[in-house]
Amino acid sequence: MDMPDKIVILRLGHRPQRDKRITTHVGLTARAFGAEGMLLASEDKKLADNIVDVSTRWGGDFYVKNNVRWKSEIRKWKDEGGKVCHLSMYGINLPDAVPEIIQCDKLMVVVGAEKVPFEIYEMSDWNVAVGNQPHSEVAAVAVTLDRIAEKDPLKNEFQGGELTIVPEKCGKKVVDNRG
Ligand code: SAM
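Above: inputs. Below: predicted complex with S-adenosylmethionine.
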């Protein structure tokens, strides 16, 4: 298939006081757009549990691994044949990298918060810009996962959730699957 069938996000530099909301949004966006989980290179178990709670409510098997050591996770991933795509506004523009990226089976997408260690640039297979302008890690994750997907990620379905939205022209219809 012409897209990675296993995608994980590695979130670097998360500061629990400052980045709570944006890291939560990185995780939820990654889940919604087809990643299987997020590795959090900081200690914030509460945040990790919150994301998993959302996943339980809305379906799927998204996981968050709290407090990982980024270097050993990247090494392990590469040893197992995975590729690493670091999102940085300084990188190669995404449309130019997509044809190569979609050839790999296992993709780790790395996003920063504050300044990213230079080693990340060196360890990554691709340093990729979602346009060479500064914006947000949430937008960068969403656009990347959308651009490398074979099937439209907005059509993703999530099984086993407690709640399912029934799309409506106007209003909010939610089915409670707990009976
Ligand atoms: N000042 C930081 C630096 O120089 O590395 C970047 C801060 S930025 C708000 C946080 C993260 O968003 C970055 O590490 C990167 O992963 C992502 N990001 C922001 N703009 C991006 C872009 N245009 N392309 C790809 N990733 C981007």
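The chain has a mean pLDDT of 97.
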